[in-house]
Amino acid sequence: MRILVHTEGAERWCEALRQRLNDESLEIFVDDGERLGDILVVWAPPAELFERHVGHDVKVILNLGAGVDSLLQNPALPNDVPVIKLRDAGMASHMLDYVRYGLLHFRRDFDRYAGQQRAGEWAPHRVVRAAHYPVIVLGLGAIGAQIAEGLAADGYPVHGFSRSAHTLAGVTCHHEQGDEGRTLQEVLRDKSLGLKAVINLLPNTEATRDVLNAEVFAALAEDAVLINPGRGSSVVEADLVAALDAGTLRGALLDVFQHEPLAADSPLWQQSRVIITPHAAAPTPMSGAADQLVDNIQRVQRGETLTGVSREHGY
Ligand code: GLV
User: Fold this and answer.
1) Which percentage of the chain shows pLDDT scores above 70?
2) Residue range(s) of every CATH 3.40.50.720 domain in the chain
3) Distance from residue 26's CA to the centre of ligand 1 (Å)
4) Which atom of ligand 1 is nearest to the CA of 91?
5) pLDDT tens per residue, range 36-46
6) Which of 52, 53, 107, 231 is catalytic?
7) Residue of the nearest CA to atom 4 in ligand 1?
């Protein structure tokens, strides 16, 4: 069986797989643009990789990340090969760090103190406790659910939003499907929730594109903030800039963007209310990820049928 690896730093991934699998019958190699693999381990590969495999019996495509958006948008992705994504693999704990940092930054007024420092102004703000800082986590997949539960354990009143119904410890879960379902816009516009922070972990799909837009920003509380370590496609960036300029939104911590890297002339770079990180909130941890890859490779070796992500839902 041949395992082809296509990603930045592919040799390290090959090494991690060889060590764990320790199986002479497996050929594990970095994609050289020519050879064919029976199992494809990839992150954002070019269409050419799939075009090269037309007519070859690829057993499974293993995605080296939690989001499958770039794969599903690949014009040459074969329809009949299961695509498996990583589930958490250690990313959730990195993400939770990132979100906690953002919440502390705004809740404890570090944004305001930074401005005051530049102005030489000495003026303490009243401390707002976590218990008085309701937040909502959008997207309750493997990562979103852990973040929601982690923040609830920190003492924040936590709301969650997802397509289908979920039950999570300490989290008030809202969902879209079914008779009692509410749309994301309805939930975010609900003033009774008193939301101070919107944390976006929605996958990039048709249904989530542009959902965080002018209408939503206008409906949030004036001192609300956006924390986005999920996907940039959910946010209408022009609307975000306008809401920040107008002071409709207090600030944003952004890791992901509509186009990455963020263009040099994006007005977001200059926005003093924004903190930008370069899609670095939760890099894929090799150890947890390699364990999941090995598990899936061994299933293929045993002849098991793997169930991939839903092409219809896009995650
Ligand atoms: C990173 O963006 C991932 O999808 O894992």
Assistant:
1) 100
2) 2-88+284-301, 91-276
3) 27
4) 5
5) 999 999 999 99
6) 231
7) 67
Report d(CA 151, CA 62) in Å as an integer: 30
Among 3.40.50.720, 2.40.170.10, 3.30.450.20, 2.60.120.280, what is the CATH number of 2-88+284-301? 3.40.50.720
Domain 91-276 fold is Rossmann fold (3.40.50)
83 lines ligand 1 (CB under 6 A): no
Identify the CA nearest to 312 among candidates 231, 205, 211, 230: 205
Task: Tell me if 7 CB under 6 Å of ligand 1.
Answer: no
Query: How open is the CA angle 292-298-304, to the nearest 5 degrees?
Result: 110
With CA atoms as reference, report the closest residue to 290 among 86, 68, 104. Answer: 86
Is the pTM above the cut of 0.85?
Answer: yes
67 close to ligand 1 (CB < 6 Angstrom): yes
CA 174 to chain centre: 19
Report residue 299 CA to chain centroid gap. Answer: 27
